[in-house]
Amino acid sequence: MGKLYLIPSPLGDNDPAEVLPASLLALLPTLKLFIVEETRTARRFLSRAGLKGHIDELEFHELNEHTTADGVAALLPLLENSDAGLISEAGLPAVADPGAALVALCHKKGIEVVPLVGPSSLMLALMASGLDGQSFAFRGYLPAKTEERRSALKAVEKQSAQLHQSEIFIETPYRNDSLFADMKAGLSPSTRICVAADITLPAQFIRTKTVAEWRREKDFTIGKRPCVFIILA
Amino acid sequence: MGKLYLIPSPLGDNDPAEVLPASLLALLPTLKLFIVEETRTARRFLSRAGLKGHIDELEFHELNEHTTADGVAALLPLLENSDAGLISEAGLPAVADPGAALVALCHKKGIEVVPLVGPSSLMLALMASGLDGQSFAFRGYLPAKTEERRSALKAVEKQSAQLHQSEIFIETPYRNDSLFADMKAGLSPSTRICVAADITLPAQFIRTKTVAEWRREKDFTIGKRPCVFIILA
After folding, report:
1. At A24, is the pLDDT very low, low, confident or very high (cuts 50, 70, 90)?
2. How confident is the model at residue A85 (pLDDT cuts 50, 70, 90)?
3. Chain B positions in Cβ-Cβ contact with residue A21 (cut-off 8 Å)
4. Does residue B165 carry a pLDDT above 90?
5. In B217-232, which positions are buried (b, 16+ CB within 10 angstroms) versus exposed (e)?
């Protein structure tokens, strides 16, 4: 029986060697079978990670939000005679993405799952935020509609205060600035907000300020780039 | 003004090159100033990371649970003319450890904070657990006393069911098995538990099973090793 290697990938177009251990880069050429969120992205990543010229010898299967439960189960026999690598669009596979269904199935069937070290935008943002809650929670996306989003923000802030918990969430890049405007408008002046954009990339921007301080930065915009938000009330 | 580099370290006695990117290993020899949770551990890590023979040329300052707020503030002038590296006992610095106070101060003073990629036992466990909650929360340690711990476990399980949230917690190694016994006794048979021990180390053990399944594994013990627990109800 093969093993399922969980292979993180860079958070942007940077060199894989900047963010992945040499041991992971050395493992990649030994794998022939990849289960990926999107083949095109995975091929480009593997090519940059040292497999250029060998991509056509590899076998790719997609596992994404369109894959049914039967589709996930159909991937399992591939592991009978071969190790496989699981790769998501960016960052860690099987965290808040469809890859977790395959990992769950591996546990059921006794297939060994090997998680490998790589960039986690959530943890890099949390480390660099200075927001030392006694605990933290990741909530994915908040609601997109203004009214629902504003109440969600108030609820998240209340929970942060009660549990002294850092609250982490993300947004589709084109909505970063409207979310951030709602945060500045609706959260308490003393609540701290960390804005962490383009993590690990040349344009990396990570700042933590109180709501009151952010309100004074009238010209600041985040723009359409990958961004993690963290608040601590 | 210098920068504060947040430098992850291995989760055990393994080779730093196994779990840290080459770019981080290349950065280390350029730093002369380190702010560390424990000097002895940090010296050993840096020595194994390629600085052997140069450790005595480095400056170490400790920042740990005994450091007062004034003590943290006193570290800041060190960064006026020099970059510094922040290193915790194991894994990511400034996540649930006293380093976060220094990072917070850097944000106040406009000092740039640069988080670097390395092993996060929490995220490696979550990836490999297959427990795809829509969200996840890290709760640190549960109460140590049996009665309080049992009610905390029930509360955590209830929240996991309500929010479809993976709940991550840790325990002092010598209490792993008593916590695990309480989990098996008190949680619902269908709740899934991931036990992730010795992550990234040769003895790595990561298994996710339902409470009902774990109850049947009568001979299984975790032992006194670093372990992350995750449940999803």
Report:
1. very high
2. very high
3. 17-22
4. yes
5. eeeeebeeebbbbbbb
pLDDT band at A1 (very low <50, low <70, confident <90, very high): confident
Say if residues A32 and A61 touch (Cβ distance below 8 Å): no
C-alpha B176/C-alpha B178 separation (Å) is 6
The mean predicted confidence, pLDDT, of chain A is: 95
- Helix axes of B121-129 and A121-129: crossing angle, nearest 10 degrees: 150
- Residue B53 contacts A, CB cutoff 8 Å: no
Contacts of B17 in chain A (CB under 8 A): 21-23
Q: Look up tokens 């991509």; give the residue.
A: A55
In whole angstroms, how far apart are CA A34 and each of A29, A101, A175, A205? 11, 16, 32, 33
Instruction: Check residue B132 and give its pLDDT.
Output: 78
Please judge whether B132 and A101 are an interchain contact, meaning their C-beta atoms are less than 8 angstroms apart: yes
A73 touches chain B (CB under 8 A): no
Note whether B12 and B200 are within 8 A (CB).
Answer: yes
Q: Do A128 and B200 touch (CB under 8 A)?
A: no
Alpha-carbon distance A36 to nearest alpha carbon in chain B (angstroms):
15
Pick from B175, B179, B218, B209: nearest CA to B191 = B209
Residues 6+ apart with CB under 8 A from B60: B34, B35, B36, B39, B42, B43
Is residue A92 less than 8 Å (CB to CB) from chain B? Answer: yes
Nearest CA in chain A to B202: A114
> pLDDT tens, A200-229?
999 999 999 999 999 999 999 999 999 999
Cα A99 from Cα B9, distance rounded (Å): 27
- Residues B74 and A137: their CA atoms lie apart, in Å, by 31
Mutate to test the interface with A, among B11, B117, B231 (most CBs of A within 10 A): B117
Cβ pair A23:B6 closer than 8 A: no
Q: Please give the model's pTM, rounded to 2 decimal places.
A: 0.96
Q: Which two tokens stand for residue B91?
A: 């894994």
Which pLDDT band holds residue B177 (cuts at 50, 70, 90)? very high
Question: Phi first, then psi: what are they for A224, rounded to 5°?
Answer: -90, 70
pLDDT, mean of residues A116-125: 96
Query: Pick from B127, B116, B157: which is nearest to B139 by CA?
Result: B157
Q: Do A105 and B139 touch (CB under 8 A)?
A: no
**H helix or E strand, kind and range, residue B152:** helix B146-163
% pLDDT > 90, chain B: 91
**A104:B140 CB<8 A:** no
